[in-house]
Write a structure and sequence with these properties.
Length: 268
């Protein structure tokens, strides 16, 4: 068998095993619908809370709802990782991984299947958030291609955050420690321009916010949607579209191999 054939065979093996693991995770949705519903409702509650109860818009030119909704779509990509992290740690602690090891299955397929299922749920959640945003008055003003590009950037950020979560879950090792790790998501999410403009913050804090990967995605998505964009004179603010791609790709390059390597070490 040639090298090309061996590579194609290995890829087919990984793809088949990954899809098997994806179907396993999707079956959990049927058995645990409450967890899925909570994952969909939580970001909607945040959107309505910031939009109607807290309000805002200081330093923002234009309608605050048009500024807020893309920011909340970005924040949603960071939330909900706890379910993925708990699933990974539970499989590790219940011996499920040991059973998988006894099967002729590629070791990376377990994580890849989990990530595919998570991305499918993220796509559903993103659709719900866009629909709710539309109902409360948000509109996008670009073309369909720009709309798809914005959604692509959001899902790219989610994919990067997902692999960070998977790696940290395996480092934590126990479900009870996952909640402590998940708490770290909130300061990272709120330390961005998702709900407020850096111009309304102290200069030193605004500079930190502009370099947050979530700020880059939020700014790029707002531009693609044709919504108000936070002003700023920094390089990060002027090159948000570039950073919206570079940051997630860099995170994936770092944490994907770390997660796979950690998984293989735990499986020995």
């Amino acid at each position: 068998m040639s090298t090309t054939q061996q590579r194609d065979s290995a890829l087919s093996w990984v793809a088949a095993d990954s899809w098997t693991m994806t179907r396993r995770e999707l079956a959990h949705w049927v058995r645990q619908p409450v967890q899925v519903v909570i994952g969909l409702v939580f970001p909607v509650m945040l959107l309505l809370m910031f939009g109607y109860l807290i309000g805002g818009g200081q330093g923002i030119e234009g309608d605050f709802t048009d500024y807020l909704v893309p920011g909340m779509l970005t924040m949603t990509m960071a939330f909900g990782l706890e379910a993925t992290m708990l699933s990974v740690t539970q499989d590790l602690n219940k011996g499920v991984i040991d059973r998988f090891r006894s099967m002729p299955m590629n070791s990376a397929a377990v994580l890849v299947g989990r990530s595919i299922a998570d991305m499918l749920q993220s796509a559903v959640g993103l659709t719900v958030m866009i629909a709710v945003g539309y109902l409360i008055g948000w509109r996008w003003h670009g073309g369909f291609a720009s709309f798809l590009a914005a959604v692509g950037l959001l899902l790219l950020l989610r994919f990067a955050m997902l692999w960070i979560g998977i790696y940290l879950a395996m480092v934590a090792g126990k479900p009870e420690l996952v909640q402590a790790v998940q708490i770290l998501v909130f300061p990272v999410a709120f330390l961005s321009n998702a709900i407020a403009s850096p111009e309304s913050m102290p200069s030193w804090l605004g500079a930190v916010v502009e370099w947050n990967p979530m700020s880059a995605t939020a700014t790029a998505v707002r531009g693609l949607f044709g919504n108000p964009v936070a002003t700023g004179d920094s390089w990060a603010a002027a090159n948000a579209e570039l950073l919206a791609v570079a940051w997630p790709v860099a995170l994936i390059v770092v944490f994907f191999p770390l997660a796979v390597s950690r998984f293989r070490d735990l499986s020995r």
